[in-house]
């Protein structure tokens, strides 16, 4: 899915900004602004998922708003594996593969998108 590729690219190209989005500072104004940005982007993903369901590409019984939030949260979790310093750390190729698997599992067709790697996360 293009949204996941764009988010992964953002995490690679701007790792500090991604970390702030994924783990915002405990400051009320910052939390609110980041939540607003996240809601805006998840709204776009929700609309795309709604369109995909209407076209028969995803499960039409799944709530697009919940699916968007779940995919966003799971993608954050997968990308954050690259921050680990232990044996559970995922390099950029594995991060891309994990995201591809996740989106493949969430599609009706079972064809997972392939996300390539080009730089460090």
Structure description:
This protein has helices at 2-13, 15-22, 28-54, 64-80, 92-105. The chain has 121 residues and is mainly alpha-helical. 64% of the residues lie in helices and 0% in strands. It is globular. It is built from five helices and no strands.
Structure keywords:
mainly alpha, disordered C terminus, 121 residues, globular
Strand and helix layout:
Layout: H1 2-13, H2 15-22, H3 28-54, H4 64-80, H5 92-105
Helix pairs in contact: 1-2, 3-4, 4-5
Q: Report the average pLDDT across residues.
A: 85
Uncertain residue ranges? 108-121
Shape estimate: globular
Which secondary-structure class do the elements indicate? mainly alpha
Helix content: 55-70%
What portion of the residues fall into strands of 2 or more residues? Answer: under 5%
Count of distinct strands: 0
Question: What oligomeric state is this?
Answer: single chain
Number of helices: 5
What radius of gyration results from the CA coordinates?
A: 15 Å
Main sheet specs: none
Helix-strand sequence: HHHHH
Please summarize what this structure is:
This protein has 121 residues and is mainly alpha-helical. It is 64% helix and 0% strand.
């Amino acid at each position: 899915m293009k949204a996941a590729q764009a988010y992964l690219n953002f995490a690679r190209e701007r790792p500090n900004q991604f970390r702030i989005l994924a783990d915002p500072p405990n400051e009320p104004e910052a939390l609110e602004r980041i939540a607003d940005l996240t809601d805006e982007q998840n709204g776009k993903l929700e609309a795309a998922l709604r369109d995909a369901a209407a076209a028969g590409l995803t499960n039409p019984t799944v709530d697009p708003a919940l699916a968007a939030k779940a995919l966003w949260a799971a993608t954050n979790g997968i990308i954050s594996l690259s921050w680990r310093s232990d044996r559970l750390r995922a390099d950029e190729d594995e991060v891309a593969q994990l995201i591809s698997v996740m989106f493949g599992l969430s599609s009706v067709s079972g064809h997972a998108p392939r996300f390539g790697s080009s730089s460090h996360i």
